[in-house]
Amino acid sequence: MDKEMVKSEGYGRDGVGYKKGEGRIRLLPDEVASQVAAGEVVERPASVLKELIENSLDAEARRIDVEFAYGGVGLIFVRDDGVGMNRDDALLSLERHATSKIRCAEDLFRISTYGFRGEALPSIASVSKFRLVTRPRDESLGTAISVEGGKILSVQDSGEAPGTSVEVRSLFFNIPARRKFLRSELTETGHLLHCFQTFALAHPSVGFTLRKDNRILYQLASSGDLTTRVFDLFGEDWKSALLPFLEIQIRSIRIRGMFSALPPRYYGRSYQYFFLNNRPITDPAILRGIRSALPVSENDNRLPACILFLEMSPEKFDCNVHPAKREVRFRSPDEVEAAVEEFVRESLNQTKLSFVLGSAGISAPTAAEKIATIGSPLTGEQKEEKDRVIEPSADSNILDKPVILIGTGDFEHQPKLQLDTISRDEQDSVEKEKKENGKVKVPEFRFLSMLGDRYFLWQSEEGLVLMDVRNAYERIYYDRFCLLNKKDQKIHLPSQYLLPPVNMNFTPREIAWIVENSELFAELGLRIEQFGPTNIKIEAVPAGLDDLSPEEILNNLCTRAKSAGKAGARRFIRDELMLALARMHASRSKISAADAPNLLETLFACELPYVSPSGKPILLLQSWRELDRKFA
């Protein structure tokens, strides 16, 4: 379509035609406008559940029952015992921008309720088969309204108990394009469970029940005690590691909450719950305040599990900046950041705990009776025990059974390489020459001595070469497992069954991820089964990994594999388990000076003989020139 045709025929910039004399801007039909609004409010089934629970809480409900099926696409049902609505209000609630929360523009700056836009119910009803049943507490008769795709089908009397119930079926039935973008049922279920947990955590004085496919997942009493609600939601892991509850007033901001000295698997946003006047929010100022109070780098996002409630005047923030109201805008974010930082420091001072983040985890040296030390830096004795050589069985030494041999016995001089500064190009050149000649290119190193119980010292034309034998074994074993995997795409590691099985708690989203990859875990010897909404039962682990606890194996996979994304998860999980096996076998390998020549040959038959699969160096060179300079 050329420019002249566009001009003469009256086409718009996007190629859509309009008649001459007509304006370009038009009002959208009500049906389309409702679906556009629904796109802002209803991202997925969890968005529907969020809006319905918020409405129930605004209606002063003391009891909220939730049920869903097929990841929320088939059914989302919420019933409460709140104030209810009369017929006129019920009909008005299905009109866009109809709300009981605000009367004028000034009310937007002093909002104290969850819902106020008046978009949730009409937006949900426009993309589902919707039924609303409501009855005021002071009336003997209620109202039932059925809606399909935004069109009201019937309005009838109802004899239901006081309160409101909303039933949402066949979500996005009239927008199949939107439905295609939903994730798997397990993933959507994880988002629904997380949404439910968040609101149940924010309101311990409200009783909650959750059913999935007619099975009760949660039945939470209205205790009013946050600690009890945390235990009911998250289980024994949190119960054993929860720090004392703290509540303080910092200038105009009241902050209450607690941290949990949980292992590093519980670091990150999935285990951080922030509430502003009981509204779940995400805000960078709060994260900055926590990070400022803890010894953690700017690039480390793994902050400890925590639950924080901030309370301040509604006039000090704007919650009308996001369609789903997940974000807020503080008038003074620096004040919020400083208040959170002060709260965290005060919390740590009162509990006498020190958080050491990163690879060290969390240490609690003065509260051993209450909280076990988790992931703290190794002491000298612990490190010595960790590095202790474990005598293997007669057939466990890889040098007795050479693994990846490409040719045998034909040694040629290795090109001179600076091992401490070797480049990727140089490594590729060596590997290419090795493959072309079909021979193992072993450098002419002369063995000098064994240092301690872990290092070999060699002499080369370039200088002295130090080998970390443990890292060398790790590379050899890892390449062995990779070779087996190339021959058989499904490696099928044997399993070692546990008596009794081990139970572990996870977030709903983690549960969804684990269950989705359960077949791959089984191929690699890790057999698991979902056991409750947030619990996994480990029935078997890969045979030979008895140096690692079942919790460690699954923790490591969940902590790291999720970062690989769905497409790379399969390969990542496989590689992680193979690396764990390689590390275990390496730690058990007997180190002897007599094995040095065979070890060097086997190592240089590997693809990357200079670095372990963990990224640690295997060979380090101290050149003669550098030694001469140091002794000059």
Textual characterization of the structure:
By secondary structure, the chain is an alpha+beta fold. It has three domains: 30-223, 2-Layer Sandwich (Heat Shock Protein 90); 235-363, Ribosomal Protein S5, domain 2; 389-632, MutL, C-terminal domain, regulatory subdomain (Ribosomal Protein S8, Chain: A, domain 1, 2-Layer Sandwich). 34% of the residues lie in helices and 21% in strands. An eight-stranded mixed beta sheet has the order 5-4-3-6-2-1-7-8. Helix 3 packs parallel to helix 7. The protein starts with a helix and ends with a helix. 35% of the residues are buried. Residues 5-16 and 356-427 have low confidence and may be disordered.
Q: Which properties best describe this structure?
A:
single chain, 632 residues, alpha+beta, Heat Shock Protein 90, Ribosomal Protein S5, domain 2, Ribosomal Protein S8, Chain: A, domain 1, 3 domains, 8-stranded mixed β-sheet, 5-stranded mixed β-sheet, 34% helix, 21% strand, elongated
Task: Please report which band the strand proportion falls in: under 5%, 5-15%, 15-25%, 25-35%, 35-45% or over 45%.
Answer: 15-25%
Question: Residue ranges: pLDDT <50 for 5 or more in a row?
Answer: 5-16, 356-427
Secondary structure: number of strands: 24
Q: Please state the structural category.
A: alpha+beta
Mean pLDDT value:
75
The name CATH uses for the topology of the largest domain is Ribosomal Protein S8, Chain: A, domain 1
Tell me the Rg in angstroms: 31 Å
Number of domain units: 3
The CATH class of the largest domain turns out to be Alpha Beta
Structural shape = elongated
Helix content: 25-40%
CATH architecture heading of the largest domain: 2-Layer Sandwich
Strand order of the largest sheet: 5-4-3-6-2-1-7-8
The number of helical runs is 20
CATH homolog superfamily of the largest domain: MutL, C-terminal domain, regulatory subdomain
The first-to-last residue Cα distance is 79 Å
Query: How would you characterize the largest beta sheet?
Result: 8 strands, mixed
